Amino acid sequence: MDFQHSYAALPLAFWSAVEPTPVAAPRLLAWNTALADALGLDPALEARAAAVFSGNAPPAQARPIAMAYAGHQFGNFVPQLGDGRAILLGEVTDPRGRRFDVQLKGAGPTPYSRNGDGRAAIGPVLREFLVSEAMHALGVPTTRALTAVATGEAVFRDGALPGAVLTRIAASHVRVGTFQFFAAREDHAAVRTLVDFVIARHYPALAGHANPPLALLEAVVQAQARLVSAWLQVGFVHGVMNTDNMAVSGETIDYGPCAFLDEYHPAKTFSSIDRRGRYAYGNQPGIAQWNLARLAECLLPLLHEDGEQAVAMARAAIEGFAPAYRAHWLAGQRRKLGLATEDAGDESLAQDFLEALQAVEADYTLSYRALSNAARDDAAGLPKSPGMDAWLARWRERLARESGDPAARIAAMDAANPAVIPRNHLVEAALSSAAEGDLAPFNALLAAVRRPFDDGPGQAPFMAPPALDERVTRTFCGT
Ligand code: AMP
Ligand code: MG
């Protein structure tokens, strides 16, 4: 592989050199052909993937490092985290000139492992593979998975589980927590170095801006507003939005206890460690803004030499989140509701649909999908309730004021409202089968979630919501 090493070229405080720890018996579990092609990788790599991406035989040009970062975990600041089980091999450039990190997750201990073993179990590895592929297919910015390799070794969590290594492809792995690592040490020169790195890597249009740290902050605010809006549109609950799990690129990163809503409720959490619901579905925009405020704090000394002016600039930038988020959310809802024009009542129309779903615990995904049918005058698939009847009447009246071709509207709605999401109960079932050696359910589910807008006959088994006794209420952190 043709690697570059721009991150490893940063000063020593940013990273630690560390070799992956070899594993006993690497075996390829999943290879992402579409991603390998998109990255312009040599197809012959697949045959060597188990050895290469387990870390047993890293490419000759790799320069493996673990990255330093800090972070607020559930609101508490931890000054030193870092890649405790992830190792960056290097960066590759795709045929369109875009640069990506190639990182092994679960490749053995690093100087940042603290008490951890540096390893990952097959379940969390395949969960990240599956859900990140689903997110990509849904059009949500995300890191991606190139390979999953079984290690042939056990990892010990509650009991012994088969181990695996994920190869993650990311626009970069710079997090809000990376800025916090240096800001907490009052190393403002390093923060400035990171600002320049991130601008060059992700926001090149900002180069030469009069105030680069401010421009960067504003750009990250916009990227996160767009990202979190995209999450809410598809019913995604990240589950662990700590500042070390928020990438400044605006990609979704770190699929731990994540889940998709079945029945709609804004207070929904799934993570077994999120007891107070800090990262509940409907809290995600507020948490994103809170995390961005932590980024702004890191940048304060660079924004303006006068402290008060710096705070005023930071505050103005952070206050930009809510209107940006709201605009993305409303635009997304208009697409979901089949509205091509704008009307002042659209926001409450969209909110009231959600309230009608919540009142009867209706399935989030299938209810939106059923609106295409309802646009054809058949409300099949929508919950039957007085609230929904009243809402449908209002929506039909609103649609009557749209001028476009109804068939085109239905096609556009079907392209905005997925039929297939990675249903939690199917994900859990696929991962348990995989842990017992049967990859068939995983592969079938992966194929289905890669075509989320297709509701053809083969997709039916993956569309159905869980029966009451199949509902997953808790997911477990991927550590
Ligand atoms: P996460 O909850 O996956 O975002 O991880 C939070 C922090 O714990 C990061 O610094 C990880 O590198 C570290 N960590 C998680 N799992 C392990 C592990 N098995 N071994 C070492 N470090 C870990
Ligand atoms: Mg993390």
Task: Give a description of the structure.
By secondary structure, this protein is of the alpha+beta class. It has 16 helices and 12 strands. Strands 2, 6, 7, 8, 9 and 10 form a 6-stranded antiparallel beta sheet that branches. It has a two-stranded antiparallel sheet with strand order 1-3. The structure holds adenosine monophosphate and magnesium ion (MG). Adenosine monophosphate (AMP) is lined by residues 81-85, 112-113, 116-119, 240, 244-245, 254, 256, 477-479.
Descriptive labels:
479 residues; two-stranded antiparallel sheet; binds adenosine monophosphate; six-stranded antiparallel beta sheet; alpha+beta; 12 strands; binds magnesium ion
| Helicity, as a percent range | 40-55%
N-to-C SSE series?
Answer: EEHHEEEEEEHEEHHHEEHHHHHHHHHH
| Secondary-structure content class | alpha+beta
Measured between the Cα atoms of the first and last residue, the distance is: 29 Å
Strand percentage: 5-15%
From the alpha carbons, calculate the radius of gyration and give it in angstroms. 23 Å
Low-confidence stretches: none
Mean pLDDT: 97
Bound chemical compounds = adenosine monophosphate, magnesium ion
Number of strands: 12
Shape: globular
Largest sheet properties: 6 strands, antiparallel
